[in-house]
Amino acid sequence: MPENLDKIALVTGAARGIGLATARRFLSEGWRVALLDIDVETLDKAVAELAQPEATLALACDVSDPAAVAVAFAALTIRFGRLDALVNNAGTAVFKPLLETSYEEWQRVLAVNLTGPFLTTQLAAPLMADTGGGAIVNITSISGLRASTLRVAYGTSKAGLAHLTKQQAAELAGLGIRVNAVAPGPVDTAMAKAVHSPEIRADYHDAIPLNRYGLEEELAEAIFFLCSDRSSYITGQVLAVDGGFDAVGIGLT
Ligand code: NAD
């Protein structure tokens, strides 16, 4: 039986993949969910398929654009009037070595993956504080935990987001807000299909003790736990959900 009919979550990058699975997880627990994404067509389709118009709100927004984020938060506040959980999941990836990564690629990856969560948090925290607090989960990556030859922009953005998580946890605890990160290993979403070559897939298969990619639902479960009261004494942590990859420490291409 759902117990959280008054609770509101905002999930960025929620039109597909891990973000959509996370939105579904919140809905299954009786939360209402604002789904934010830059891809309006896919977002509208996803929200239509969820078929819960009373419990969902679609927000078309580029998380790296301060004005667009402000408009999205205004719409969320008008519709729901409060915020209990923010999942900074929107992300973009360029898998190239340092010397082949363009300035524009570097800037875009940093803007979406790192500046986006900075912008959303600045608007989410006061809204959460109005009702006594909440929880934020940033989606980093195992690529932010260690260096690899193809991930200079992506890995650096995710390592920065892991540090932002600790910074947010330290600064927002006084407002009753816990902040943690989930660092997925490979999950076979559209993003992974776009950037994981056969060589990368073989690397991962060998390097992951559980010998498989993760499922979107397995990530959503960890994210939901860190947003729920069941994790009430956990803040400032980065939880790898990666089939044991980080534990064994084998490098990647
Ligand atoms: P995905 O590409 O399937 O979904 C990402 C969503 O974010 C898309 O709907 C996309 O439209 C949206 N998005 C991209 N840029 C945006 C922007 N500027 N503003 C708003 N929305 C934007 O990816 P996914 O695999 O579900 O990844 C979700 C998160 O998990 C990302 O942060 C990603 O870096 C991280 N991650 C994924 C994997 C993996 O193997 N799939 C591994 C580690 C970390």
UniProtKB/TrEMBL annotation:
BP GO terms, sorted: fatty acid elongation
SUPFAM superfamilies, A to Z: NAD(P)-binding Rossmann-fold domains
InterPro entries: KR_dom (IPR057326), NAD(P)-bd_dom_sf (IPR036291), Sc_DH/Rdtase_CS (IPR020904), SDR_fam (IPR002347)
Domain Ketoreductase stretches: 7-187
NCBIfam families for the chain: PRK07231.1 (NF005559)
Entry's family note: Belongs to the short-chain dehydrogenases/reductases (SDR) family.
Protein name from the UniProt record: NAD(P)-dependent dehydrogenase (Short-subunit alcohol dehydrogenase family)
Taxonomic lineage: Bacteria, Pseudomonadati, Pseudomonadota, Alphaproteobacteria, Hyphomicrobiales
